[in-house]
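thought: user wants a sequence for this fold. calling inverse folding tool.
action: design(structure=
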C-alpha cells in the first residue's frame, strides 16, 4: 500500500478545491480516506481525474453520467460508492 509524499498530497489537496461544494466534499473525503491505500497506478488515475473540468467531474461523480475516459472509470466508481468495496484497487 503505497503512501505518497507530503508534497504530492498537498498538490492533490489543492487540486481537490473545485468551484462546487459537492465536488469539494467528495474529492477531499476520497483523498483523506481512500487515496493512501490505493495502488500507485490508481493514485495516478486519481491525479488524472483531477485534471478534468468541474462540469465533467460533476457529470461523472454526481449525475452518474457515462465516463468517457477508461483510465478513470475505477476511481469514479470508488468515489460514487463512497469508498466502499475497492479491495481490488489496494
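)
observation: tool returned 90 residues.
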Amino acid at each position: 500500500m503505497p503512501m505518497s509524499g507530503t508534497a504530492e498530497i498537498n498538490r492533490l489537496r489543492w487540486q481537490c478545491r473545485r468551484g462546487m461544494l459537492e465536488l469539494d466534499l467528495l474529492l477531499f473525503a476520497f483523498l483523506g480516506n481512500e487515496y493512501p491505500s490505493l495502488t500507485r497506478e490508481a493514485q495516478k488515475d486519481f491525479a488524472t481525474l483531477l485534471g478534468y473540468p468541474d462540469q465533467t467531474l460533476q457529470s461523472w461523480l454526481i449525475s452518474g453520467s457515462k465516463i468517457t475516459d477508461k483510465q478513470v472509470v475505477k476511481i469514479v466508481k470508488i468515489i460514487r460508492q463512497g469508498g466502499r468495496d475497492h479491495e481490488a484497487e489496494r
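thought: summarizing for user.
answer: Here is the designed sequence. Residues 21-33 form the longest helix (13 residues).
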